[in-house]
Amino acid sequence: MTKLYFLLPFVFLACKSGTSTVSEKQSKSESTEITYKIEESEVSDFLKYLSSDELQGRETGTKGIEKAAVFLEDFFKKNDIKPYFKTYRDTLTNFKAPAFNIVGVLEGTDPALKNEYVVLSAHYDHIGVEKKQQADQIYNGANDDASGVTAVAQMAKYFSKTKSNKRSILFVFFAGEEKGLLGSKSMVQKLKAKDFNLYTQLNIEMIGVPMKRDYLAYITGFDKSNMAEKINEYTGKKTIGFLPKEAEYQLFYRSDNYSFYDVFKKPCQSLSTFDFENFNFYHHVSDEFKVMDIPHITAFIQELLPAVTKISTSPAQEIVMNK
């Protein structure tokens, strides 16, 4: 998550629990059954490497993030996700050093709907290495946002194995998010020039630890679209709730979803379980693999599968902006 200048990592801020946007009875009537299972061991292995010291905090433009880029490219290749551009690497136009978004595409199976795109995304950069001498100098960024990248990667594998997407899906790992959303700002201009037909974007940001609430995650810009309501219908659960602190801190504008919304004016929002009470290590060297809750991350991805499936298959564009 791009830096919150007003947020101290060790300050706990009280939040009221949100409520589901649909009744449980209504949700269950709309839910989609998924038999595919996310493997906890795969979630663990993927996240462990992406947040390892070997990658040196994945700062944009460094050798560490280059290793991460190769890792993500290899993952796409192994899972038959094709490059959207000429290669998986989408070069940033707004950063002085060579830097790349990693972008894959899975074409939709429906002759008409495949011309519409769903974007599933997360940022794979973090803030690198602390310059002053101290015991631990590496900002591993396990929660921010290796956890989100892991979720998107597992969704990519799911769709590749099941071929259940009628719409085409872009799987995007952004660089430069921590530098001011640079990767997404660069990419949307290229997509706009291609008359990219965006249906919706779901960005995943900081899902490494659970919240103690009656819903799984919150969505940024809750009232801007019916995204939360539709996800709850699709999962048949209280998956998404309203977090007052999200609105107070305007998190909608602080991750890569905003770049897409700003250009396309379509429902483009981020999901997160970082609620300002459950994680002490935002932009801290202790944001490491060992403090991640792997069963929670696995369950998060599993619970979202019915939603991303329905988003990619519904005959009509059911997710719309609120007027």
Give a structural overview.
It is a single chain. It is built from nine helices and nine strands. The protein has helices at residues 24-30, 40-50, 63-78, 142-162, 182-193, 227-235, 244-248, 257-264, 294-313; strands spanning 82-83, 89-91, 100-106, 117-123, 168-174, 198-204, 217-219, 240-241, 268-272. Helix 1 (24-30) packs across helix 6, helix 2 crosses helix 4 and helix 4 (142-162) crosses helix 9 (294-313). The radius of gyration is 18 Å and the shape is globular.
Provide a quick synopsis of the model.
With 323 residues, this protein is an alpha/beta fold. It has helices spanning 24-30, 40-50, 63-78, 142-162, 182-193, 227-235, 244-248, 257-264, 294-313; strands at residues 82-83, 89-91, 100-106, 117-123, 168-174, 198-204, 217-219, 240-241, 268-272.
Q: Determine the mean pLDDT.
A: 92
First-to-last CA distance: 28 Å
Order of helices and strands: HHHEEEEHEHEEHEHHEH
**Backbone structural class:** alpha/beta
Strands, count: 9
Largest sheet: 9 strands, mixed
Radius of gyration: 18 Å
Shape label: globular
Beta fraction of the residues? 5-15%
Which bin fits the share of residues in helices?
Answer: 25-40%
Given as residue ranges, the uncertain stretches (5+ residues, pLDDT < 50) are 5-29
Please give the count of helices.
9
